[in-house]
Structure to design on (1067 residues):
């Protein structure tokens, strides 16, 4: 009846008796968010009976029972579909029901024990008919993207993400976030099909990461050495919780700026600032002229790459203030020696090159903030640039310039969600057009995705969740769904309202979009 | 009547600040430093803190009635306040197991706080009122409270002087504190119509209000969007007008619970039933109450404000407000009266005819006044005073001399305060404190810098400003985000309304408020952070 196409893939039309979801079936699949690439559904709904509802593996499936990722997912979704049943409040209203309902899951690869990575296919096909549903995916990560709670409607859906990288940044340095708050966020991320947790784990204010190699970093640099740190087992727990939800954990150890807290536990790491001819007692960015700096960084990143399995490491590189470097006579002498003149961006470039090379040697892909591109271009071609500055006009120009230079790029600028304002600002996040910049098709392919950033100046566990959700969900749909099918923000509004209520039902403290109510209101404080 | 709370606290303080060793990293924004007033918030009127400190041991410390006190164990209000503050200071009994077993009290411990109520009449079972005297005095380890109204603030101040040293032991420095509020009406408005607020959230915010010495809960209970108040006389109002007739309503028992919970914390509950505008939800359950709008010569099917030309309207209001006057014990009711849109009235031929009969010409404000005056007479007959939004005054409605005019329109609110008080009416200010308007950064400073008496007028006029309210309208707020959005931003308003006029040092305020917000977090309230930093006990209720 209709061909649903996306920018990058085309799927054959389904000759189905179902309605086209977009036009007619919208309300029969309420709360589906982000919108699947193609979905057709019948308006009919039928009850599911928890006592006769089963998940099974297809006989052709490469993964079978014992696949931890899927077994756990089945458990989670069962509780989401039958919340009363799991909470023990279930009563036998369906005990007379006869026919079982089976969801058969088949995946093409047994990657149950691996981690999701940049190349993991997240495509899946879900079809629901009388008494059964079938979900087919290439990988287990794709199987996780199917929302089994919509199984109460006959439908057929083929779905895949528009962008491969759909991230959320949390900042655990400006405020410490208890592990519980991080796990809750990972749960909510999975509901919006986000697949990367960008953990901005350390920064100027505090260093909560407890390093095996350099325990002093958190012992002296955390807000509190016992209560405000992430132990190795905390980090492990976050990574494995994320894996179960098909989410990559991308750690950021930002340097050479944003490192005040590092200096407390690692002497000689930061540049001593001078006032006149003597040290002022304050410190600036990482000291780029000492070999000991690079030795330290190599050791630290070696640890980081063994703790965090993801193939990407975020190296930061933003907002380096040169005034301290300028004040330091040794740094100036080094500048002279290296022939940098008075151009401190060259010194920054020198530092970043060394750091990037360290991660290259560790077989890791580097992500750096756009500043690194802006100031110098001698960075390996597979480095990913992360755009964070500016208004649409300026980030479009940056997208253009970076992709023209052949680098892959990640867009965060329009999604600085820590900036709050009165009203429905989710609309701004929704109407972003990430590929609306001048460039060739080849250039557009270099945009690997986007990221919602929740910087922590004004955010901690008290307000994180309602500030993040459902505002981040607006960006989630932009990054997952087809842009043409989701260009109308007013049409998205009721669906997002439904989805927000669904988040509440799933225990996520998501704030309201506007006046109205949910059947199950949040009952906490 | 003047409310004069003098809390004379002889206690100690000072080194208590070391527990919050927020690091001195340099960032462009404010850097935390210990205030000489520690974590006191709002700052008491007169504070002297000595260096002498005492230990408090949970196993031996008691809050007791002084021998001469006119109230004793039979006063449940007092006893529950003692228990509440004991738990704030030491945690629940469960948490104390260790300290009980591991630490004996020694003679230098502070073993009891005596509370001495001197007012002869037992107001223990009464409700806080507009004339409640919140005064109390504190002599060394004796809170000397003249009236019950002072209990809440007296104990709160005492608990704010207690600090935890680096070993987790509780101490308190000797201090003399003499305290009373600058303004008698210090309110928070919550809106339970745009979004339904479960009782639990309302109670948690009453609890937090008490920590901030707010004393009025302005319950904007119904509005266009929904009518969650379950009326005994007109149950169909919520049956038809609530978001859901069972899950999204306040039953009489719920309302009673809110009122009692507030009473125990010295907080008045003033309900608002806003008319004639903001009443769409009323129309669902009460036929003929709203004005039918016309499109041309035919009713359009939509409805406007309350219909002011029908006798049935006033019969309904009389019955309704009679019920309200019995359900809500406070001496005041808020009658709204804001933002009346005249287009529907204009469209209705019956109203046009009525305007002619009454010789109102084209001035629909006169019709509004006609309605409001009748309503005020009805409410007066239920023996209640009333508050109204400023438009009612602006439109020249005849008001009782003790009417409180609520100033809310931003831009020119100083002129409005001038003219309201020049006309001799008491007034409360909300215009600068619409906390539902959010923005990035430390907007609490904006609320803090407001000076309510900064308008042209005589001293007599200034005395007519009885206080203010922070308003958290509900378009974008429900239980999910209410508490962190309100606190500690509303705390800034709390200090402005409680503390002396010259308490304006924003740096010192930042230092005290940072600790105060951590204290709220420790007491289980998800009050959001002011800026990058940490609390010793972070919020765990995720």
């Amino acid at each position: 009846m209709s061909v649903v196409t996306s920018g990058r893939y085309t799927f054959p039309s389904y000759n189905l008796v179902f309605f086209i979801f977009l036009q007619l079936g919208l309300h029969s699949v309420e709360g589906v968010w982000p919108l699947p690439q193609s979905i057709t559904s019948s308006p009919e709904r039928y009850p599911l009976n928890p006592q006769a509802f089963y998940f099974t593996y297809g006989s052709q499936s490469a993964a079978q029972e014992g696949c931890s990722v899927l077994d756990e997912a089945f458990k989670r979704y069962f509780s989401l579909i039958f919340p009363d049943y799991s909470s023990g409040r279930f009563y036998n209203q369906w005990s007379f029901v006869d026919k079982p309902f089976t969801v058969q899951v088949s995946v093409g690869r047994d990657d149950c024990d691996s981690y999701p990575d940049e190349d993991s296919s997240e495509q899946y096909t879900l079809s629901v008919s009388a008494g059964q549903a079938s979900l087919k995916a290439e990988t287990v990560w794709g199987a996780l993207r199917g929302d089994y709670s919509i199984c109460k409607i006959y439908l057929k859906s083929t779905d895949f993400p528009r962008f491969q990288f759909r991230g959320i940044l949390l900042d655990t340095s400006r405020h410490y976030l208890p592990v519980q708050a991080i796990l809750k966020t990972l749960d909510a991320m999975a509901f919006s099909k986000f697949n990367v947790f960008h953990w901005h784990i350390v920064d100027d204010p505090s260093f909560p990461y407890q390093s095996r190699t350099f325990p002093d970093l958190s012992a002296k640099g955390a807000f509190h050495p016992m209560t405000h740190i992430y132990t190795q087992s905390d980090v492990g727990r976050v990574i494995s919780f994320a894996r179960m939800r098909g989410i990559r954990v991308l750690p950021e150890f930002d340097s050479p700026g944003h490192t005040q807290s590092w200096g407390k536990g690692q002497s000689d790491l930061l540049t001593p600032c001078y006032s006149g001819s003597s040290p002022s007692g304050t410190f600036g960015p990482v000291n780029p002229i000492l070999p000991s700096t690079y030795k330290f960084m190599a050791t630290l990143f070696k640890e980081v790459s063994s703790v965090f399995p993801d193939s990407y490491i975020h190296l930061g590189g933003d907002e380096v203030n040169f005034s301290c470097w300028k004040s330091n006579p040794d740094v100036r002498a080094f500048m002279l020696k290296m022939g940098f003149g008075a151009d401190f961006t060259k010194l920054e470039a020198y530092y970043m090159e060394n750091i990037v090379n360290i991660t290259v040697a560790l077989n890791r892909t580097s992500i750096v903030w756009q500043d690194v591109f802006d100031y110098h271009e001698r960075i390996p071609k597979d480095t990913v640039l992360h755009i964070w500055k500016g208004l649409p006009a300026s980030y479009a120009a940056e997208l253009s310039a970076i992709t023209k230079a052949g680098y892959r790029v990640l867009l965060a600028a329009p999604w600085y969600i820590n900036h709050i304002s009165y009203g429905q600002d989710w609309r701004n996040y929704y109407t972003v057009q990430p590929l609306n910049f001048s460039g060739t098709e080849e250039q557009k392919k270099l945009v690997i995705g986007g990221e919602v950033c929740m910087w922590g100046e004004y955010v901690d566990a008290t307000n994180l969740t309602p500030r993040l959700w459902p505002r981040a969900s607006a960006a989630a749909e932009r990054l997952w769904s087809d842009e043409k099918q989701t260009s109308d923000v007013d049409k998205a509004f009721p669906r997002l309202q439904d989805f927000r209520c669904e988040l509440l039902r799933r225990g996520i403290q998501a704030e309201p979009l506007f006046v109205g109510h949910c059947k199950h209101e949040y009952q906490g404080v | 009547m003047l409310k004069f709370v003098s809390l004379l606290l002889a206690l100690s303080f000072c080194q208590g600040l070391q527990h919050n060793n927020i690091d001195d990293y340099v960032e462009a924004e404010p850097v935390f430093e210990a205030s000489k007033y520690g974590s006191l918030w709002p700052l008491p009127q007169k504070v002297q803190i000595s260096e002498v400190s005492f230990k408090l041991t949970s196993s031996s410390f008691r809050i007791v009635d002084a021998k001469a006190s006119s109230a004793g164990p039979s006063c449940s209000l007092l006893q529950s306040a003692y228990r509440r503050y004991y738990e704030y200071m030491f945690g629940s009994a469960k948490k104390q197991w260790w300290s009980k077993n591991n630490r004996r009290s020694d003679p230098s411990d502070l073993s009891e706080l005596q509370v001495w109520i001197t007012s002869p009449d037992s107001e223990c079972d009464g409700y806080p009122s507009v004339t409640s005297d919140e005064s109390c005095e504190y002599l060394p380890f004796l809170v000397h409270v003249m009236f019950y109204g002072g209990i809440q603030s007296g104990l709160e101040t005492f608990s704010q002087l207690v600090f935890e040293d680096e070993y987790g032991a509780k101490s308190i420095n000797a201090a003399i504190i003499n305290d009373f509020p600058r303004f008698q009406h210090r309110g928070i408005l919550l809106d339970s119509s745009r979004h339904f607020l479960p009782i639990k959230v309302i109670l948690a915010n009453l609890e937090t209000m008490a920590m901030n010495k707010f004393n009025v809960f302005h319950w904007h209970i119904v509005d266009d969007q929904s009518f969650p108040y379950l009326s005994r006389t007109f149950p169909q109002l919520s049956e038809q007008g609530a978001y859901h007739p069972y899950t999204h309503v306040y039953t009489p028992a719920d309302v009673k619970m809110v009122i009692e919970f507030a009473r125990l914390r010295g907080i008045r509950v003033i309900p608002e039933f806003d008319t004639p505008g903001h009443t769409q939800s009323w129309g669902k359950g009460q036929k003929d109450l709203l004005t039918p709008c016309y499109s041309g010569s035919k009713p359009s099917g939509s409805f406007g404000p309350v219909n002011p030309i029908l006798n049935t309207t006033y019969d309904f209001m009389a019955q309704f407000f009679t019920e309200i006057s019995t359900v809500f014990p406070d001496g005041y009711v808020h009658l709204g009266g804001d933002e009346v849109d005249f287009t529907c009235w204009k469209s209705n031929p019956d109203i046009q005819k009525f305007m002619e009969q009454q010789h109102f010409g084209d001035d629909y404000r006169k019709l509004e006044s006609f309605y409001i005056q009748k309503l005020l007479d009805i409410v007066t007959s239920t023996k209640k005073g009333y508050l109204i939004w400023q438009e009612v005054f602006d439109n020249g409605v005849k008001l009782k001399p003790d009417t409180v005019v609520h100033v809310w329109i931003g831009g020119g609110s100083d002129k409005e305060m001038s003219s309201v008080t020049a006309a001799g009416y008491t007034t409360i200010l909300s215009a600068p404190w619409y906390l539902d308007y959010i923005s990035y950064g430390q907007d609490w400073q904006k609320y803090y810098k407001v000076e309510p008496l900064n308008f042209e007028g005589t001293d007599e006029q200034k005395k007519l400003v009885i206080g203010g309210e922070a308003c958290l309208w509900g378009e974008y707020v429900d239980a999910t985000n209410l508490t962190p959005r309100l606190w500690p931003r509303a705390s800034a308003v709390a200090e402005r309304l409680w503390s002396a006029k010259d308490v304006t040092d924003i740096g010192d305020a930042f230092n005290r408020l940072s600790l105060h917000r951590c204290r709220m977090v420790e007491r289980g309230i998800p009050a959001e952070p002011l800026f990058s930093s940490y609390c010793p006990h972070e919020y765990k209720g995720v």
